[in-house]
Amino acid sequence: MKVNAKALAPVALVAAFGLGSLAPHAQTPAQKIGFVDVDGLLQTQAGPKEARAIENKLKTETADLQKQANAIIAKGNAATAAEKEKLNQLNATYQAKAQAAAKQVQALSTKMEAATKVVDTAISAAAKANGYSVVMDRAVAASSGLVVYADDSTDLTAAAQKNIK
């Protein structure tokens, strides 16, 4: 019996795939993914705390301005010339207060950068100590739809907080 090379080709192909699938494959170890409340950690630091206080003060100071402006805007074309002038004054006052607040926050930039470095270092240390290969900001992950559910055991916020000095 003579064996033809063309007749053996399909058998050789099947054998190659079959034997190839039996070869051991390197398995990638499971990666631990953790989540951290970055904003909460930042609020424990001086710069972000001060910036939040400035923001809250601006909201409080401009709440009445907003109310008055909204009342005039609601009148639409029925607003008198005096009301329209008042609206322009309210807008100018609001802009001035917002710019002053922005300058105050800008003056805190060095403190903000230092706080971010402290928090990032604390998160990295907590992640490494607990065997996490990926850590995400919980708020960003949730708001982006990237993560729909995460068990509370994946929260590294408390561990990171312990690393903040």
Shape: elongated
Q: Count the helices. How many?
A: 7
Our Rg estimate from Cα atoms comes to 31 Å
Give the terminus-to-terminus CA distance: 84 Å
CATH architecture annotation: 2-Layer Sandwich
- Please outline the major beta sheet: 2 strands, parallel
Helix percentage range? 55-70%
Q: What share of residues are in beta strands?
A: under 5%
Family: Belongs to the Skp family.
InterPro entries: Chaperone_Skp (IPR005632), Skp_dom_sf (IPR024930)
Pfam families: OmpH (PF03938)
GO molecular function: unfolded protein binding
Describe this protein's structure:
The protein is 70% helix and 5% strand. The chain is elongated. Strands 1-2 form a two-stranded parallel ribbon. The protein contains seven helices and two strands, in the order H-E-H-H-H-H-E-H-H. The chain has a single domain, classed as Protein Binding, DinI Protein, Chain A (2-Layer Sandwich), CATH 3.30.910. It has 165 residues and is mostly helical. Belongs to the Skp family. InterPro entries: Chaperone_Skp, Skp_dom_sf. GO terms for molecular function: unfolded protein binding.
In short:
The chain has 165 residues and is mainly α.
Write the layout of secondary structure elements.
Blueprint: H1 5-22, E1 33-36, H2 38-42, H3 46-75, H4 81-107, H5 109-129, E2 134-137, H6 138-144, H7 157-163
Parallel strand pairs: 1-2
Helix pairs in contact: 3-4, 5-7
Pick out its properties:
Protein Binding, DinI Protein, Chain A; 165 residues; two-stranded parallel ribbon; mainly alpha; 5% strand
